[in-house]
Design a protein that fits this description.
Methyltransferase, Cobalt-precorrin-4 Transmethylase, Domain 2; five-stranded parallel beta sheet; five-stranded mixed beta sheet; alpha/beta; binds S-adenosylmethionine; 10 strands; 2 domains
Length: about 270
């Protein structure tokens, strides 16, 4: 695509970085980073560091690239209805930054934690950019999601056979969480770090506390697994914390930690 200046426009590539271990970045995502001249990376806090950027910086040399970190508002986004002004502003600012680079013929990478498929700001950016410049060449490269990574850390499936799986933020209201528990066999609750006591109360109502495990900073230094999630309620949990609940319909094979194997390092995590 040519710009009015006669210059060929760059492209925007959204990449899933995986959950944190740079070895879990895909070869395709790595190639996109290497071929980009600019990186626009999301931060959750104003002036905070971008976790997604930190992950790719461990896997690729980004020193010669233009790097801009853009703060994305953490206000809740409702797909229907009005949105907080700061939300729209942050999408708009990120889109401006991307289009400035692509307008100069640069290829831009936007890294996002895990897989863009799940609750990622990347798709808000993509639709804003597409609205502004419909002809821009764009690509989305999937990543290993945090829930997939939690499953492998626990050496337990999220869903098998006729299991039904649900992935939602724990920040949803009590009714929606109850609805998920009543409907599905496996439930992954993201964004649980600030609302764990409420989640514990709801799980207690269904006698499902024993079936829940919390994984914090999965695939990152300092990864912790709480088989008794009540113990995690007294901790200052990292934003990268996920609770997995499995109704045990399938005996020991469905358990999170098969006796004798422990966690991914062979340890029984509650003894750490
Ligand atoms: C906005 S969602 C993004 C999910 C991401 N797109 C994915 O595929 O995993 C952020 C939530 O993902 C979960 N998460 C991301 N990285 C994680 C990790 N390394 N360990 C545990 N949970 C993680 C946490 O629940 C966190 O609050």
């Amino acid at each position: 695509m040519k710009q009015s200046t006669g210059r060929t426009a760059g492209r925007l590539t959204i990449i899933g970085t995986g959950p944190g271990d740079p070895e879990l970045l895909t070869l395709k995502a790595l190639k996109a980073v290497e071929q980009a001249q600019a990186i626009v990376a999301p931060t959750g806090r104003p002036n905070g560091a971008s976790s997604a950027l930190e992950i790719i910086a461990q896997a690729a040399d980004i020193s010669g690239k233009q790097v801009v970190e853009v703060h994305f508002s953490m206000q809740k986004v409702r797909l229907s209805g009005s949105r907080h002004r700061s939300v729209e502003e942050s999408w708009s600012k990120a889109a401006d930054t991307v289009l400035e680079f692509t307008g100069q013929g640069m290829n831009v990478v936007f890294p996002t934690i895990g897989d863009p498929a799940f609750y990622s700001t990347a798709y808000y950016l993509l639709s804003t950019v597409q609205e502004r410049q419909p002809g821009l060449v764009t690509e989305v490269i999937p990543g290993i999601s945090s829930v997939g990574s939690c499953s492998s850390a626990l050496k337990a499936p999220l869903a098998l056979g006729d299991d039904m799986l649900c992935i939602i933020p724990a920040t949803f209201g009590d009714d929606r969480i109850r609805q998920a528990i009543e409907t599905f066999d496996s439930i992954a609750l993201m964004k649980v770090h600030r609302c764990l006591p409420r989640v514990i109360r709801i799980l207690e109502e269904y006698s499902l506390l024993e079936n829940a495990v919390l994984v914090e900073k999965c695939a990152l230094d300092g990864e912790r697994i709480f088989q008794d999630i009540r113990k995690a309620a007294h901790e200052d949990l990292h934003y990268f914390s996920t609770v997995i609940v499995r109704k045990q319909r399938m005996g020991t094979a469905g358990r999170f930690i098969v006796p004798g194997t422990g966690d991914r390092n062979g340890r029984n995590v509650d003894e750490r």
